[in-house]
Amino acid sequence: MSEPGSLVRALSGRQTARNYHSYVIAEVGLGIASGRFAVGSILPNDAEMMGSYGVSRTVLREALKTLEAKGLVEARAKVGTRVLSRSRWNLFDRQVLAWIQEAGPDAAFLASFVELREQIEMQTATLAAARRTAEQVRMMHYWLNQRSAMATLCEPFALAEFEIHRTLCEASHNPFLRATSGLVEFGVVQATLARIKAGVSDFAAEKSAHYKDLTDGITTGDVASVTSAMTAILAQDSHWTLPNRPA
Predict the structure, then answer these.
(1) What is the C-alpha to C-alpha distance for residues 165 and 187, in angstroms, rounded to an integer?
(2) What is the full DSSP assignment across 177-244?
(3) Measured in whole angstroms, how far is the alpha carbon of residue 81 from the centre of its chain?
(4) pTM of the predicted model, to two decimals?
(5) Please, what's the largest Cα pairwise distance for the chain?
(6) How far is it, in rounded angstroms, from Cα 120 to Cα 66?
């Protein structure tokens, strides 16, 4: 669930865990994100969890270690495994974002996310305009065409739109910005989900001109055009993600 595109694929329904280990991670992770396992609480003991999920102690312990590495829990001798506050969660982790997405992020979380996304995407686009390769330009045009071709199919459309943004992350040639592709994908998904709920049938039309300007600007290295286009794209997405925020 941590590979690029996994958040988009969840638009069509929850993905099935591949094995018992991933199943326990997903169930407990979602339980924490949804508040079923409250922050500050101690998770049920091993025997209870082994019975609930039908797994061995080894599988359970490995799953809890994975959740601990993501910052969701902390194991302490003679105390148990405590659920940590959201400030400790690794919010750059796609799987953590997937659980938050499935649980339903609150308005405050989305507002904070939008602030960060705007900073990341503007910086990424600016650097990409100056540093992109010919192959990255080719991929931008390919995904731009796919975005239009898949305009009425929410999941393929969202994947194409995400790949445009992921290509920008790669084209920045900045390893820290490349590592933010999970956040970028989360942003595309949130804006798409809002459009689905509103009954939008053509997902591409609203921002088609902006994406063309963005791709053309990347092609020619026109930083001003890229900045203007990305500003317009983010304004539209922010309006859908945060309905009370002016477009």
Answers:
(1) 10
(2) HHTTHHHHHHHHHHHHHHHHHTT-S-SSGGGHHHHHHHHHHHHHT-HHHHHHHHHHHHHHHHHHHSTT
(3) 27
(4) 0.92
(5) 62
(6) 27
- Give mean pLDDT, residues 33-51: 97
In this model, does residue 142 exceed pLDDT 90? yes
Distance from C-alpha of 83 to C-alpha of 28, rounded to nearest angstrom: 10
What is the set of domains in the chain, with CATH numbers?
6-88 (1.10.10.10), 105-241 (1.20.120.530)
Using pLDDT thresholds of 50, 70 and 90, give the confidence band for residue 14: low
pLDDT of residue 16: 66
As a whole number, mean pLDDT of residues 87-109 equals 96
Residue of 150, 125, 247 lying closest to 208 (CA atoms): 150
Distance of CA 224 to the CA centre of its chain: 27
Q: What average pLDDT is seen over the chain?
A: 95
